[in-house]
Amino acid sequence: MSKVVKTVESLARPVVEELGLTLWDVEFVKEAGRWVLRVLIDCQDGVSVNQCQAVSLALDPLLDEHDPIKQSYVLQVSSAGLERSLKRGGDFARFMGSLVEIRLYAPHEDKKEWQGILTGYDGQTISLENGVAFSMRQVAQVKTILREIKR
Questions:
Q1: Rounded-to-integer distance, Cα 55 and Cα 76, Å
Q2: What phi, psi does 121 have (nearest 5°)?
Q3: Separation between Cα atoms, residue 85 and residue 142, nearest integer Å
Q4: pTM for the structure as a whole
């Protein structure tokens, strides 16, 4: 994880939690030729536009004060969404039994994308209901999905 992301996470987490929300993820990416600092938040009852604005207004002065990013960037605060990436052990635990899509770095049985119900995660391996399991070294991304399972 980059130093920028770690620093922003440490600044954002208390702000987000003080507002009764959960910090889901922080991304610092270049998109369409500009840098974007994306702070993804979550709430049991869903995230409102007003909550995103409150986080943005509280976080912006902290970012200016601590100045963890030297180049210009755009700050985006948004909901983690219904379809979201799973990265940490707690993410997998929360979505156990949910429909997920796994994208692999290299094909397995001629497929790089697999869908199914998440039935296991131990930090090293991720398992789906159909008995297929992947080492986390094989996995590029895991995200929750709302579509039908492709058979």
A1: 10
A2: -160, 125
A3: 6
A4: 0.77
